[in-house]
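Pasting two entries for a bug report.
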Amino acid sequence: MKIKLSGLAVFVVLAGVLSFILLVVAIGTDFWYIIDASKLERLNNSSAALSSHSGLWRTCRRRSKCFPLMNPFWYENNNMTASHKQLLKMHGTFVILLPLSLILMIFGGMTGFISILARTYLLLLMTGWLFLFGGLVTLTGISVYIAYSAAAFKEALCLLGRNNLLEEVDIKFGWSLALVWVSFIAEVLNGAAFLLAARVVGLKPRREQRI
């Protein structure tokens, strides 16, 4: 099957723009982690809003304002447990990795634009590996966030002393995290498309020599 470079160019543009936009939206929204405590509110006849949804930077309660999470890069060590320090380190890790993936996408977009116009094998190859590396960074950030969420919930259970909290509270990952997964897939496909484009460009001189 003959693969046209123009078709690959259209695909990498669409996939790159989609991946970038989805990651920007995900990083800027607060629906990564959703806690639905409506059942607990009814059981306790509480008027206070216990349900919340969280992002990378802040936590928001229903019918109330949002408040920022603790700065993982600037905090005092006084009266802080080892597990809490570990949570802050994990928090600092994924808030660095995910924006870093955005930066890699920007560089990949610039080199990709030049490589498609110039049809240079090495530049296409480098862009492909750059997007794949960016996808790896995104995947690492997602994995650290999921591990962070599990550890934070475990820490909350220990502080509250209630192991049966899951029976009264519904906890799930939100659509912001789903956007990151789609962005990751688009980023990997984009990298693979650039590698395929590099292969197409690299095979052209061989065909011309045979002719």
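Entry 2 (this is the one that rendered wrong in the viewer):
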Amino acid sequence: STAEKPILLNNITDAEAFISGAEVVVVGFFQDPESPEASQFRLAAGRIAEVSFGLSTSPAVLTHYGVAANTVTLFRRVDNDRRDLDMNSKDVDAEKMTRFVRMNELRLVTEYNPVTAIGVMQSSLQLHLLLITDKMSPKHPKRMRKYQAAAELFKGKILFILVDSNLNSNERIVSFFKLKKSQLPALAIFHAPDEEQDVLTLDEVSVERVQDFCNRFLQ
């Protein structure tokens, strides 16, 4: 897009509007917009097209968010959380920043991969629902719409995760829940602290099925 990245946030009102405007946003807080840290931040912003990046050098904004200069913060809606990356302590470059964002960009429905797996494990939401399904299936867009709609209902309670059964790296998840590819799509719910779990094979994904499955487990 031709939109300027990152967007300059000059005051608290701008910052609040920017942060509440998307499921995941990243803000760089800097004293000097021309510092080497800020230019690495711009580099990272250019690499991650689908995440909005903001930059602020306003002392009022930094104080409002309780950050020191040279901090990169990811704000996310799914568990109403934030993650801070301090650029002062270590040599944080665009590479490390990109990984930080990729790891922590949990969404209403987060696609599972070895990088987001770390962010999932670190989330305050300890109940995870997995839709294990074939992304190449012609039914996938419709399934995702239903799953996304169900995720809205459990926002802040359950982390909704999409597991693509085509990826070799996801094979161990399928076998962890004692599923075979022929039984997919399936839902699996997992309570991280005690590894309590339940599995439901589906002929089709519907908001009601997902809702019932989650509610039964929550009781």
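Dev reply: Rendering is fixed now. As a check, the viewer should reflect this: The chain has a mean pLDDT of 93.
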